[in-house]
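Folded chain entry
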Amino acid sequence: MTDTTAFEAAAFRRLVAHLQQRTDVQNIDLMIQAGFCRNCLSTWYEEAAAAAGTPIGKDAAREAIYGMPFPDWKAKYQPEATPEQLAAFEAARRAHP
C-alpha cells in the first residue's frame, strides 16, 4: 500500500502557495464558489496541529496560510465586501447549509 502523506502534503503546499499568489481572489468569493476560504484552511491547519499534539494558535495558523500576519494581508488585499458579494454569499450559504 502506498503512503500518500507526502503527496497530500505537496498538494497542500501548492494550494497554499497558489492562494498566497492570488491576492486578487477575495475570501468571500472563495466562500461563494467553493464553500471554503483561506480562514477555513487556516482553521483546519490549526486543528490538525492540535490533533498532532502541537497546538499553534489561530494567528500562527493564519500566518502559515496567508504568508504574512492576517491583519497585514487584510489591510493590503481585502477590501470591504460589496453588496453583490454579500448577497451571493448569503444565497450560497442558504443553498449549502
About this structure: The chain is about 70% helix and 0% strand. The mean pLDDT is 96. The domain at 5-95 is CATH 1.10.3340.10 (SMc04008-like fold). Residues 5-21 form the longest helix (17 residues).
